[in-house]
Amino acid sequence: MKLYPIESGNFKLDGGAMFGVVPKTIWNRTNPADEKNQIDMAARCLLIEDGNRLILIDTGMGNKQSEKFFGYYAMWGDHSIDKSLAKYGFHRDDITDVFLTHLHFDHVGGAIQWNKDHTGYEPAFKNAHFWTNENHWQWAVKPNAREKASFLSENIMPMQESGQLKFITRPEGDFKDLSELGFGILFADGHTEKQMIPHINYMGKTFVYMADLLPTAGHIPLPYVMGYDTRPLLTLDEKEKFMNAAADNEYYLVLGHDAHNEIITVQHTEKGVRLKDVLRWDDILT
Questions:
Q1: pTM recorded for the entire structure
Q2: Which among 49, 64, 61 is positioned nearest to 97, based on CA atoms?
Q3: Is the predicted pLDDT of residue 286 greater than 70, yes or no?
Q4: Architecture of domain 2-285 in CATH?
């Protein structure tokens, strides 16, 4: 097995929304805001090469939305999925599976693209299965008013219409070993219904792709919960359990939204679980 970071693009979001009730004077120390109060964000995906399987975890925003839409997110940098795949010798047609932690547009938008004549949509990975779970799918296709702007039908329905959609069954507990793809999944409900957090055994370590359970290194303290979370008190509970496990078991945390910190480890301190080390993929891949 090999892991590769896939940078799908950078953008900006309002810092206040990203840190909820935490005052700017505090979060600005770790995630400095610009003159518009926006902070740097990444849409970092993860590629797993395992035998004949090439599994992409999340896809970023994609490029099919309007100029007005992307204007809200102040896109910056020159990253793209195609450039990142090519860096490691791959093409999007090589992808066998696309695993989606959840169906918010910044995680699923790149899964679907315009067709050739711009009359409709088609899968951006024509040879891949798209993996979600039925509980979250129903949550996304019949969205609540709070999340409606994050669940866009053009990102979601074409997966089902193509016949490439597959559902993962939620177990009785919060963790499932997904034998089909070769890694485990932690289910978390605080950010959105049945978000899935992959746990991957690699090089004798557990690498965890954090999605929106821990968007940036600046979100490590327990009260630092995004304003976007639908159930913030549940996030607190889920986050506390996970962060203790991460410190106990020395997990490597892959940050999908942190534009400046790629991988971190955490440790127990008198103040609770806090940052230990910051690592780069180059340190791990070489």
A1: 0.97
A2: 49
A3: no
A4: 4-Layer Sandwich (3.60)
